[in-house]
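User: I'm putting together notes for a lab meeting next week and I want to include a structural view of one of the chains we've been expressing. I don't have a solved structure, so I'd like a prediction I can at least talk through. The sequence is below, exactly as it appears in our construct file.
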Amino acid sequence: ALPVLFGFVVPLAVLIDNAVTIGLDDIRPSFFAALRHSLTLAAIAAPLAVAIGFLLAYAQRISSNTNVRATVRLAALGYAIPGTVLGLGLLTPLAGFDAYLNSWSRYLFGLSSGQIFAGTIFTLVLAYLIRYLAVALGAIDAGFQRISPNLDAAARTQGETTLTILWRVHLPILIPVLGAAGLMVFVDTMKELPATLLLRPFNFETLATEVYNRASLAEFEEASFSALAILVAGLAPVLLLHRTMAGRPERRRNRRPKDSAA
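Assistant: Thanks for the context. Below is the predicted structure for the 262-residue chain, given as structure tokens.
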């Protein structure tokens, strides 16, 4: 119980005490803006990561091509890259590309194209996809491995193609897995800090950067609401997923007598 007590209960109690000290009436408008930005970024990055991970995992299932396996391994490397390194690795080439486009825009049209890639939401979402694609890919690939290849063979005997097998056989089975993968990417995106600090647009705060900024100014009580929001965003999906997965065996047991009677 000690890790749970000192790693979760005590910090949570401190955050709640700080939040109560401030009160709901004194919440700064920047908190709501940061909450909206974090939810928006996570809502964009999670489905994209799940979609890309699903396609890569399925490509690896139906093909033993060396190029496919190498592509999947390369896509999973982003999780091992620190956020700071990833941010710098994206910022430099994208800023150079923006400068190149700006020079051509001035030459051709006499207008500045401004920042199209560097320092925009596009860059943030790209960084999240690179960093957390491995999370979605690992969960979805594990789900595919639990599906017997005999199902594919049986579907082919009924005249199904590769795409129709994916749509009519695999996708219905993997819906809980896809939901779990999306939740994991969503939670990781909500709390990502180093890459967000480097790549965010000007005056664009997320919950993680809001906590960082308040803590750096020793405004710990003001940071409590953002920290609690990150905590809720991380715990709520996990508890919901756990409740859903725990209820599935019970629902199956409840169905058996009915199925037998039928």
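A couple of points you could mention at the meeting. The chain is about 80% helix and 0% strand. The first helix runs from residue 2 to 22.

User: Perfect, that's what I needed.
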